[in-house]
Design a protein that fits this description.
Helix content: 40-55%
GO molecular function, one term: flavin adenine dinucleotide binding
Order of helices and strands: HHHHHEEEEHEEEEEHHEEHHHHH
Mean pLDDT: 92
Cofactor: FAD
Protein name: Acyl-CoA/acyl-ACP dehydrogenase
Low-confidence stretches: none
Keywords: FAD, Flavoprotein, Oxidoreductase
CATH topology of the largest domain: Butyryl-CoA Dehydrogenase, subunit A, domain 3
Shape: globular
Pfam families: Acyl-CoA_dh_1, Acyl-CoA_dh_N
Structural class: alpha+beta
Distance between the termini: 36 Å
Radius of gyration: 23 Å
Number of domains: 3
C-alpha cells in the first residue's frame, strides 16, 4: 500500500478500539452466561469504523498494516476475548482476501468493507478440519457460475456477516469429485459472495445451524453453515485455494496470536488487582503471621513476576513478527517454512496463555474456581488457543519433516 495510515490516524483508531474494548468488557459476562453471540456489538463495531482498518485507502479504508491490526485486536481482546474472537474473523479475512483478490474484486468487495460490511470465512469440515481437502462441492451451472453443496463447521461471525468467503472443490456437471488426489488439489477453489440470511439464519441455498456449545469462547457464536445449492456467480471465483491460501495465512496465525496476547493483558491486570489487595488475616502453617498480605508472600511475588514476564515476551514475539513481515525479512526464510515459522508466534502465545491462566488461578486461590469469576472464564477461553491452525504439534511436525527431507539434507 502506497498511502498508509498515519500515526495520528492510528492513534484515533486505537482510541476507538479502547472504547469498544470497554463495551466488550461490560457485556461479556452476560453473553458468556447465555452462550450466545453478543448481537448488540454489531452496531457498535460498525460505528467504530475499525472494520476498515486494514483496507487500503484507495478502496476507502484506513490503510493499516498487519501490526496496526494486531494492536487493535489485542486491545479488543483485553476487553473480552470471546467477543473479540468473533470479529477477529473479519480482520483475518480482510487481510487474506486483499492478497488473493484480483484488482476488480478488491475494488468491489473492499469498498463495501470500507462502508461497514463484515466478512466471514467458514473453511473447516468435520472430517479433517482446516488441513483436509474440501469435500464440499462447487457444481458448474449451465448459465455460468457454481452451486455449492456441503457444510462447514466453524462459521465464526455468521450472525453478523454481510459477505461470505469459503472453499469448495469444483466438480463435473453431474457433481462428481475429481478422481485423483492431484486433481482434487487443483480443483479446490476459493469463492466470495454476498451473504444474506433472515433472522432465523435462513437464506437462498444457505442456512446457519446454531450448533455452538463449547468449553469456552461462548460469546463467539461459531456455528455450522449448510450450503444447499448456494449460488456463486462467475466473478465470485477468486483463486486456487491451496495455492493461494498458504501465501497469506499469516493473517490467520498472527491475528489469532493477537487475541491471546490481549487475553494475557487481561490475566495480568486481573491478577494484580486481586493480589495487590488480598489479605488472609492471621495465618499459621507454611506462612506464619498475625496479618498476612499476599502481596508480600514470596511465591505470589514470583508468580506475578513470571506472568508479567511472559506477557512482555509474548508482546515482543507477536509485534516483532508482524514487523518482520512488513520489512520483508521473511524473504530470507525457506519458502516451505515461511508459514510454520510465522506460526511460531501463535504457538508461543498459546502456550503462554494456557500456562498463565492456570497460574493466575493458583495464585488467587479457590475463589477463582467459581463459575462466573473472571479467572474461570479466562481459563476456559484460553483452551481455544490450542486449536486454531497451525497448532503446536502441527507446526513441529511440519518443520521437522521439511528439515529432514533428503533433498534439504543434500543442499
Amino acid at each position: 500500500m502506497s498511502d498508509t495510515i498515519t500515526d495520528a490516524e492510528f492513534d484515533a483508531a486505537f482510541a476507538k478500539a479502547q472504547e469498544l474494548s470497554e463495551y466488550f468488557r461490560e457485556i461479556g459476562p452476560e453473553y458468556d452466561k447465555k452462550n450466545t453471540f453478543a448481537l448488540p456489538t454489531i452496531e457498535k463495531f460498525k460505528a467504530s469504523g475499525l472494520g476498515s482498518l486494514a483496507v487500503p485507502k484507495e478502496y476507502g479504508g484506513q490503510g493499516g498494516n498487519i501490526l496496526h491490526t494486531s494492536k487493535v485486536i489485542s486491545e479488543l481482546s483485553r476487553g473480552d476475548s470471546a467477543i473479540a474472537l468473533a470479529y477477529n474473523m473479519h480482520f483475518i479475512m480482510v487481510g487474506m482476501c486483499l492478497g488473493l483478490f484480483s484488482e476488480a474484486q478488491n475494488k468491489q468487495w473492499m469498498s463495501r468493507v470500507a462502508d461497514g460490511a463484515l466478512v466471514f470465512g467458514p473453511f473447516s469440515e468435520q472430517r479433517a478440519g482446516f488441513s483436509g481437502l474440501a469435500d464440499m462441492t462447487a457444481v458448474p451451472q449451465p448459465e455460468g457460475g457454481w452451486r455449492l453443496y456441503g457444510k462447514k463447521v466453524w462459521g465464526t461471525l455468521a450472525e453478523a456477516a454481510d459477505i461470505i468467503t469459503t472453499n469448495a472443490t469444483i466438480t463435473d456437471a453431474e457433481g462428481n469429485l475429481p478422481d485423483t488426489f492431484e486433481e482434487r488439489v487443483e480443483q479446490e477453489s476459493f469463492f466470495v459472495a454476498d451473504f444474506d440470511v433472515d433472522e432465523n439464519g435462513q437464506g437462498d441455498g444457505i442456512r446457519i445451524e446454531k450448533t455452538w456449545d463449547a468449553l469456552g469462547m461462548h460469546a463467539t457464536g461459531t456455528h455450522t453453515i449448510h450450503f444447499e445449492g448456494f449460488y456463486i456467480p462467475e466473478d465470485g471465483f477468486v483463486c486456487s485455494w491451496r495455492g493461494g491460501a498458504f501465501g497469506v495465512l499469516e493473517w490467520a496465525s498472527l491475528m489469532f496470536a493477537s487475541i491471546y496476547l490481549g487475553m494475557q493483558y487481561r490475566v495480568l491486570e486481573e491478577a494484580r488487582a486481586v493480589l495487590s489487595k488480598k489479605t488472609l488475616g492471621a495465618t499459621f502453617g507454611a506462612i506464619a503471621a498475625a496479618e498476612t498480605k499476599v502481596a508480600g508472600v514470596g511465591h505470589i511475588i514470583d508468580g506475578i513476576g513470571d506472568i508479567a514476564s511472559r506477557v512482555e515476551l509474548s508482546r515482543r514475539v507477536v509485534y516483532r513478527t508482524c514487523q518482520e513481515l512488513i520489512d520483508g525479512d521473511d524473504d530470507q526464510w525457506p519458502l516451505e517454512l515461511r508459514f510454520p515459522y510465522i506460526g511460531l508466534a501463535k504457538t508461543f502465545v498459546a502456550d503462554n496463555v494456557l500456562y498463565m491462566t492456570r497460574k493466575a488461578m493458583s495464585l488467587v486461590g479457590g475463589s477463582s474456581f467459581r463459575r462466573g469469576a473472571i479467572f474461570e472464564r479466562l481459563y476456559r477461553d484460553s483452551a481455544a488457543s490450542m486449536f486454531q491452525p497451525l497448532n503446536a504439534d502441527q507446526s513441529c511436525t511440519y518443520i521437522g519433516e521439511q528439515l529432514l527431507a533428503p533433498e534439504e539434507l543434500a543442499d
